[in-house]
Structure formats: C-alpha cells, structure tokens
Amino acid sequence: MRYFLLLFTALAIVGCVTETRVAGTNKQVVEQQSDPVEAARTRVALGLRYLQNGDPAQAKYNLTKAKQHAPQLPEVHSALAYYYQRVDEPELAEKAYQDALRYGANDGSVMNNYGVFLCQQDQYTKAIKQFMAAVQEPTYIRVADAYENAGLCALSHSQPQHAHDYFDKVLSYDAARPRTLLGLSDAYLQLGLTDSADFYFQRYLARHSLSADSAVLGYRLAVKQNNRQDIQKYRLILQSRYPQAYAALNRASAAPSGTSVQATVAQTTDAQTMSAQANSAQSPSLSTNSANSANNDAPTSVTDIVYKIQVAASVERLSAAYLSGRLKDQSLDIVEVEDDGWFKYLAGSYASVEAAEKAKKLVKPKQAFIVGLTNGQIVYTKY
C-alpha cells in the first residue's frame, strides 16, 4: 500500500472542564464546554490519538461525540473519513468526505485527503482532480504535499509521465524531499531514461538514508544498467535488512514475463500527519532493521565486505568512556555508523564472519552481533 500525507491539526483548548465517562467503561474524559466547536476539536484530537494507539472503538466514540458537538465542522467529518479508511469501510469514508466537502468547500486539506482516498480506491482521475483543487485553493499552504501525492498516485497507476510532471512541480518547493526524489527516479526508470533515473537516485542517496523502498529501486536500477556489483550489493542489503521486500522481489521475479518490480514509494497523507500531531509523535517510518534468521549465512561471493562487531546502538551519541567500557581488549578501534536513525558502534575489522565470531570474546556485551559493511553501509547482520 502507498501512504499519502493527510493533515490535521492538534489544538490547545482553554475553558471550563467537565469530566465524563466513556460509555461502557470506567475511563474518564476531560471535556471543554466553553465552546461546542472547541469541544469538538478536543474530541477529534482525542479520537485520533486513540486511533494512532490502536484503539478504534474509543476513537469512534470520541469522533462521534465530536460530531454531536459540531455537526457542521469540516474537520470532524474529515477525521471520521480517515477513521473509516483505517477500519476499511470505504462507503462510510466516501460519505464522510462528501460531508467534509459540503461543510468546507474551500478546505484544501479535505481535498487532499479525499484525493488520497480516491487514489486508494483506484479512482485515479477523480483523485488527481482533488489534488489539483487543493493546489489551486489560495488558503492551502501544503501545496508540495498535494503535488507529491498526485505524483505518487500517478506512479501507482502506471502513469510515469504524469508522475514526472507532478514530482517536477514539487522540486520547486523542496528540492530534497525523499519521496519525490525516489518517485522521479522510478518515473524515469519506467520511461526508459536510465541516466536520469540514476541522477535522481544518487541525489536521494546523497541526502537520505537507505530504506527498503530505495534498496528495491537501487536493485531495479542496477539490473537495468547491468551493474553486477550493485545488483549484488542491493541483493545483500535486501536479504539482511529488508527480508520482506526481498521476498516480494523474488515473487515478482518469478512472475510471468512483463511483470514489473516497483519500489513501494512511501506516500503520506494529511490524515496521517494529523493523527501523528494529535499523538505528539512523528509518523512511523516504513524502514526496518529486523533481520531474518534464515538469511544469516555469511555471503561468500562479495570480497569488499568488512565484518565488525556491533557493541552498542543508541538514538543519541554515546561517550567514548562508555564505549571503552564495552571492550575487554582496549586496542580495538570503535567506529560510529549512522543507520536508520541510530548511532551504531562497531569494533574491530575482519575479513570473514568466522574471524569476527572468534573475536566476539574481546567485547563485553553478550548481545553483541556481527555486521558486514560495504562502502560504509551495513549490508549484513548476524545475531
């Protein structure tokens, strides 16, 4: 599935407070009664927070209460539409979006969100119409998001030239958006313009970390270029770090001739952003570091892999004193590698997995494991 950018806003509420209980539970909800519109917005934020945390029943309860407070507030209906999308009720989502447009005819966020829904329902022409309506709305400031959504929608419906045109518009607003750079590379690849595809893929790699999507695209591009070294490199990355993407790649390769293998470029929607804002958190990344134990056999056909022992990992940089305490052999050098938002600390340097395994006794943490690097990127993991 492709993910789009949905936009909702979490609001600070002031006024009198009344405690109520959720029907059928002992849960208490703090509700603002100073203004029905503000009370509705409080309920919307709470409902989206529940939805983000995997509690659709409480999400629906709060969104229904929001509708009771302000039945003509566009964002209430837009939030309900997003809820129905999440629980796979497309007919109810369609009605909620129609209500949101009826009460908020000039709301660019509603148009964008509705375009996302239509694209997911394979109504491509109608989806593009909504994205362009959002772009043309003077009060809508997230124009780049709407253009990017249009490009991703076009890409998912085998319209690479249209996708290129929309992504090209995005670059005038933000030249470094990762989804747009990957999308442009994919569009050029589908159009048979390999050099241009490689140009935008390299721009992506210069600014952003490798992900499952970009690894798949890198593999496809390497195949098109008949670059055996990169084919092997991206195959190893997919095997060790993104086994699900690698399995999908294998299934596509085994499909009848003519079946294309496309990277699932992450599409974001204004509703997902709203839900994340209501929960005071960023949208979850699609990247994963999980390794498949079935793929833990050491690669033998690549000679440029260096094996190291991972002794620590943290979302913040660790001190030299702390890292030194992780080693029994203080002569070992530790290098820092940034990988998928983590700082990973790797000790030693070995030509084979077997040599690295023997050296593990030189480090203290029992959970230390072996990683393989090529060109500074982790391409192999053995727990």
UniProtKB/TrEMBL annotation:
Give the matching InterPro entries: Pilus_4_PilW (IPR013360), SPOR-like_dom (IPR007730), SPOR-like_sf (IPR036680), TPR-like_helical_dom_sf (IPR011990), TPR_rpt (IPR019734)
Comp. bias (Low complexity):
283-297
Q: Where would I find the SPOR domain in this sequence? A: 301-380
The UniProt annotation puts the region (Disordered) at 272-297
List the Pfam families hit by this protein, alphabetically: SPOR (PF05036)
- Where are the bilayer-spanning segments? none
State the SUPFAM superfamilies in the record: Sporulation related repeat (SSF110997), TPR-like (SSF48452)
- GO MF, any single term: peptidoglycan binding
Q: What is this protein called?
A: Type IV pilus biogenesis/stability protein PilW
Q: Please report the organism this UniProt entry assigns to the protein.
A: Neiella litorisoli
Source taxonomy lineage?
A: Bacteria, Pseudomonadati, Pseudomonadota, Gammaproteobacteria, Alteromonadales
